[in-house]
Amino acid sequence: MKAILGKKIGMTQIFDEEGRIIPVTVIEAGPCWIVQVRSKEKNGYEAVQLGFQEIKKEKNVPKPLLGIFKKAGIPPCRVLKEFKMAGFNVGDKVTVEIFTKGDVVSIAGISKGKGYQGVMKRHNFAGGPDTHGSMFNRAPGSIGASSFPSRVWKGKGMAGHMGNERVTVKNLTIVDVIPEQNLLLVKGAVPGGENGILQIWKVEA
Q1: Which of 1, 15, 87, 146 has the most CB atoms less than 10 A away?
Q2: Per residue in 17-28, pLDDT tens?
Q3: How many helices (H) and strands (E) does the chain have?
Q4: What digits encode the pLDDT tens for the residues 165-190?
Q5: Residue 202 reports pLDDT greater than 70
Q6: Which has the closest alpha carbon to 94: 182, 203, 163, 176?
Q7: Are 165 and 70 in contact (CB under 8 A)?
Q8: DSSP 131
Q9: Cα-Cα-Cα-Cα dihedral sign, residues 177, 178, 179, 184
């Protein structure tokens, strides 16, 4: 597996060789540091812990974490995530150069929070007529299920909290890699708003 952490910069569009417009998301990916390495002997599984976004002031880092960073000989990082990668040592740097143009990746992030929303926005309900005194409009309608089971089924589409949850989008193509600026250009949209933290990985066959 190849993996890196990044920050969503925003969306734009570029032109391919045939002059067609391609919508792309610009991601500032890395550089990331290998903070810790998990092994089967010690931890029961193989993985590495990546650190992203350097923290400038040491006083803002919890002392137990600060000890881990100093032991690894790397600057303190704001974001820490584990990936099932191998072949790295503590203190190594991971950059966008692990990816190449044309790679197909999966990207996970936290979606934009929408707050408390009704059934039409949250579940795409049709609603009722706006006119002729229907008194229905955007209401959810009946949720009961008669005398059996005399309760509301679990999972019933109702109004409630929407967004602000982890979303993974698979099979996104990397359109371009710009190593000197630590940028990835990915075709299409990815979860979250600007400056949202993203996990990017490619599972190798």
Answers
A1: 1
A2: 888 999 999 999
A3: 3, 12
A4: 999 999 999 999 999 999 999 999 99
A5: yes
A6: 182
A7: no
A8: S
A9: negative
